[in-house]
Amino acid sequence: MTFRTAYFVLLTSLVSISAKAMPQDTAPNLSDTAIKVSVQIHGERLPAYSTFDQSNQGQQYEWHLLTKKRLPDGNIQEMPNGWSITLNKIESELVSLSVAFTEQGDSETFLFEKTPQETPQCQRFPFEHNIIHRPVICISTP
């Protein structure tokens, strides 16, 4: 077991996962284009995937990993770390997402544009922190 794997296993035991406004598997409407979006953090998929269609265009979805830290006074402080995806455009020839990653108050936003296919189209992002480390976003058609 490598240090990174051991660290992540320990970290996941200390981190609670919550989702805000996140459809786990939204049944697509009768639109022509539906996409499946997955996120990989440290090689793990969190969440497994979400399915969106054109009716979700323009909406933002957020996922949070809440790191809990005990303060000197005995209280527990929750520090949000996570990512959000804004579905800019969902069409058969182009999917455009704005992807923001946040950890310990540091945040960066990236543009992800791919043509949806059955084979997952993935992109790794240069966001290198302890919890969210070099995340990968993939899209495919369901």
TrEMBL record:
Q: Does the keyword Signal apply?
A: yes
Signal peptide region: 1-21
- The name on file for this protein is Secreted protein
Q: Which UniProt keywords apply?
A: Signal
